[in-house]
Amino acid sequence: MIWSCGLLLSQTGCTGPYSALDPQGPAASEVALLWWGMFGFATLVLLAVVVLWHYAIKRRAEHVPATGTSRWIIWGGLALPTVSIIVLLIVGVPVGHRMMPLPDESALQIQVTGHQWYWQVAYPEHGLQMIDELHIPINTPVHLHLTSADVIHSFWVPRLGVKLDMLPGRTNVLRLEASAAGVYRGQCAEYCGLGHAHMQFTVTAHDEPAFANWLNEHNTTEQERHEPDLLKPDVHEPAAHEATLDE
Amino acid sequence: MSKLTWFAPGHPAQIVIGFVIWSIWFIAMYGGLSVACQLAPPEVEKGAFTWLNGGLIAFTLLVFALLLFLAWRSGRYCASKHKESDDAVGFERFVGYVSTVLYLIAAVATLAGGLPVLVLSPCS
Amino acid sequence: MSDAKPASSQSEAVSHLARVWGNLPGWGSLAAVNHGTIGLRFMVTGMVFFLVGGVLAMLLRTQLALPEQNIVSAETYGQLFTMHGSVMMFLFAIPVLEGLAIYLIPKMIGARDLVFPRISSLGYYCYLFGGIIIMSSLLLGIAPDSGWFMYTPLSSSEFSPGPGSDFWLLGITFVEISAMAAGIELTVSILCSRAKGMTLSRMPLFCWYILVMALMIVFGFPPLILASILLELERAAGMPFFTVAAGGDPLLWQHLFWLFGHPEVYIIFLPAAGIVSTLIPVFSGRPIVGYRWIVIAVILTGFISFGLWVHHMFTVGIPQLAQAFFSVASMLVAIPTAIQVFAWLATLWRGKVDFQLPMLWVSGFLVIFVCGGLTGVMLALVPFNWQVHDTHFVVAHMHYVLVGGMFFPLIAGLYYWLPLASGRMPSPVIGRWGFWLTFGGFNLTFLLMHLTGLLGMPRRVYTYEAGLGWDSLNLLSSIGSFVMAIGIGLVLLDLLLHFWFGQRASANPWKADTLEWTLDMPPAQYNFASLPTVSSRHPLWDDPQLAERIAAGQEGLTEANSGLRETYGTSAISAQRERLFHLPGNSWLPLYSAMTLAVVCISLLSRWYILALLVVVLTIGLLLRWSWENGGHPSAAPLQPSDPGQRVPVQKEPVQKGSVQKGPVQKGTGHELPLESRTLDGPGRWGMIVTMLANGALYMSLLFGWFYLWTAAPQWSAPDNGPLPLWLLLLCGVPASIALWLFHRLCQRLAVGDALQLQRQLWLSAGFGLLHFLMLLVLFMMAPLDYTKSAHDAVLMVILLYLLGHAGLATVLTAMQALRVARGYVSASLPYEPQVIKPLWFYYLAVYWISVALFFMLPLGWGTT
């Protein structure tokens, strides 16, 4: 089984437009690293347990009456998981902390509203409106203010970072950052009805000058093109409840 | 078998009391945090050094100490029963042993669950 | 106890037992209440639903085998995955394990039946009818389609206007009755009907697992039942619990659902792990290593699993500190699992392993479950969870835990106990083929699915583009799933065929240590010809003659005197025989009650509310009739001239300790013990207490919802002053408190044999109860509750309705006691039933005053926000 998995890995690799194992942003990279670390450790534990199990069944023990608490339970049952948990938390908690959208003056603010079944994107600082596409500068943190106009959606660009749910009536803030220019694909991760499978979008990461150009180009044209159908009342209303992930 | 009240070490109720206390602690922490953040949220800039964190950790330590004391009490009881070997005592020793370990684990679980209070700001 | 009886009198006694305990012939078997019959029915029905759920899974995998397929539409796909999850969870996993427990527990603890046989039957019919109602939605093409956890607002009337969500909410709640019934019944049975000498420290581990599972059901299911009721009220009556604009919050649904949903995973896992802990020592030929540690681990799991529901919600934006509590708790649950795994390992290590077919499935379980547990620890780490949540990685993890943690041990258990139920052995050849195909197919399907998820495939998409790196993985997963299906098909075929072609099993074929293997194979309806005394953890290993003595009628309670079904009631702590439980025999009432409940369910689905109301009244009538046929009723155990209760006022303390051995007159029959209706304690009282625990969990969930909406709903609003005037609430509480006081006093008097003016006191208590009910009703009618516009008012309305319902119930039951006194079913000789109702009164008064305090206190808090 492990062999076939290895074969597949080498065949398909870990690349792909949605691959969390082919990261292009700091958050996704850290998670990918976490994964490989945990995967290695978990494989070792699994193999050790299976080998012990196999040997325990095969071997012919002399009948020793058991007395007291077995060392097996103390070491395997208590020490192993406790140590593993502590190590995991020491490594993992700071990673999670770095993903938090802490107050950051330099961050670009974008509002994204989920609808059945499209993504409404607004750049409040630049007066821009778009559908199903985001443009961001590279190496700059972006704070995405996520909310929903109808059911629960979830905003996810696997190669850049983690996902966060979009809930009606709340605004969650997700911090994303791309470390290389390119087009990244995102999709809805929370089942949201019939169009769920096709609720996708792209994030185009530009390097600094290209992003400035893009802003200039679109500042006038885009807005006119999309304004009529997009300025629904809920878009510019201050969110009623600034979310818990918010600073 | 002599009649024991539920609070006496050796009564089977002792087996679950450790984690009943843990559950109450858990609810009080989670509920208290939510209500406090609603009524009087401390400033975010203070990080983990707020009155709320202080209160939560004090409460955690209190519960931790209580559980340790109960563990010690039933551990002592269990050890005292070790010397006798009557059949009914086998049952009481079982209860003593199991409740001692569960009190200890509850104490550790309380402490482990309370530690994040030291580093995280409460309401964000 | 040791003097033998003549063979003829023993065979006579046995045939009398068989007559008393037999099911009715023909259609009459629908009135069966015996745990053996009901347990098997549960398991067979569960297997049928498993096949349906499996076919749905095959359809899902067929659709996903290749990219951009259109075998089923997005709409159908939504129904398929919703139904696959719901069927497997609610109609297969839980009921089958309940069935196994119902079948095995009395046999393991040395009893003749569970303590509430009619409840077993009611549970089964609710399960069957509820399952059929849910399935019918699939045939009609209007099945629920918002996913098995039914997140609002997708499942609310705005986004799911069709009846699909109603089928889920009403159908699952209906099925839930069976889980609650089993939870309460198993708890009470294990606590107070174990064999003499089977103290908690000598109980088979399987019973520990089932005890903890049953208690988890008692506390875990009420949040889901409440959530379903609230969502159905929102859909049907417009009460906006989950609507943001009216001060509700869709996240409340997620909290309540997972408050149930995570313990549920362990409710499924614990009995399965119990099977493993039973099988491993048997096939190792030695006692388990670390019995006490396994008990510790099981209790630990039971508690901690209630503290980690939020790990299903890490991506919804919960405050960091709250997330940290739940992250730590999620990881802590790895400890009890590790304790069990290493205790099993140590047992195998120190024993001489006889590697039979059940052990193959246990080994398969170990590999798969450890793998699933390890990915579970990964998922408890918040940042990793944020990345892979709602992807196929989670789908893979969940199937590793559930199939590995439940299905593999279940099959191991079925193979193990098959000889007991049928008297025949399964075929080793087909069994092995079935195992390897299932094991290989499973891993091919789901091991690869971890990678599919990491490559970014979200769950619940009905199709996907080609060239995203998911194509070959999905194809292999689909192939694997078909291999697995063939394997499972072989296993089921093997299980079926063995009834005709299996070799005759010898007595105790696996050389096991627990009491069920002393029975005939297949077992008689009454289980034990005489009820055993146990003096060690491994009665069959330490006392090889026990089976013979039981069969020869040399243990306790050999005769079915006066044609009653009876079993011993033993004290929970010391496992001494204290009284006899009279167990009701065949009854049509459970079937009728379940049928009327099904009509209620269907009329609610069709929105015929008048009909629903009428049938609810009918159902209540049936249930009251049911409770009427108890205790001293002529169809139950009426007072006899010889009844010891006629002569002696009943004492609370067990007086008959050891009298089974001493008494020269009634040797071994056990009839010198009083029936529970002649004493002050019995299974009914325990059942009431455990039911009130479940009820309390429901009430706590309701309060949690209220607090949650207050602190977290985005647009919560509440009037400055509560709409309920405090002085009226206080005034209302007075008659209720008087009713309780009267009831408590008459119980105390009855306990010392004083039945003076009993009937009048009961009527008085019921009268005050009625007064309280009417006052509360007036208050409710007058309260200006705008329950369709404000979540706050809707919550208040539900709390008031809850109080009204309980006040009414307590009053009706008290009035019924007065009537029973008039008929002579309750008296100084029959003082039991008021003791059963007393906990209800105490519970109600506690809940009433807590509610009043909160009605008063909470608005003080709102003032400051």
Gyration radius of chain A, in Å? 24 Å
Number of strands of chain A: 10
CATH topology value of the domain at 717-865 in chain C = Four Helix Bundle (Hemerythrin (Met), subunit A)
**How would you classify the helix and strand content of chain A by structural class?**
alpha+beta
Distance between the termini of chain C: 73 Å
CATH topology of the largest domain in chain A: Immunoglobulin-like
Spatial extent as radius of gyration of chain C? 28 Å
- What characterizes the major β-sheet of chain C? 2 strands, antiparallel
CATH level-four homologous superfamily name of the largest domain in chain A: Cupredoxins -  blue copper proteins
Largest sheet of chain A: 5 strands, mixed
Distance between the termini of chain A: 46 Å
Would you write up a description of this structure?
The complex is a heterotrimer of chains A (247), B (124) and C (865). Chain A has 5 helices and 10 strands. Chain A folds into 2 domains: 2-98; 108-236, Cupredoxins -  blue copper proteins (Immunoglobulin-like). In chain A, strand 6 (153-156) and strand 7 form a beta hairpin. Chain A has 247 residues and is an alpha+beta fold. A 5-stranded mixed β-sheet of chain A has the order 3-2-1-5-8. A 5-stranded mixed β-sheet of chain A has the order 4-10-9-6-7. Chain B has 3 helices and no strands. Chain B has helices at 13-39, 51-82, 87-114. Chain C is mostly helical and 865 residues long. Chain C has 26 helices and 4 strands. Chain C has helices at residues 7-21, 35-65, 74-109, 117-139, 164-192, 205-237, 250-284, 291-304, 320-332, 334-350, 357-380, 382-388, 392-422, 428-454, 471-501, 539-542, 546-551, 589-605, 609-628, 644-647, 659-662, 683-712, 726-751, 758-782, 791-823, 832-862, and strands at 424-425, 503-504, 565-570, 577-583. In chain C, a hairpin with a 6-residue loop joins strand 3 (565-570) and strand 4 (577-583). In chain C, helix 7 (250-284) packs across helix 13. The radius of gyration of chain C is 28 Å and the shape is globular. Mean pLDDT of chain C is 91; it is low at 645-668.
Structure at a glance:
The complex is a heterotrimer of chains A (247), B (124) and C (865). Chain A is of the alpha+beta class and 247 residues long.
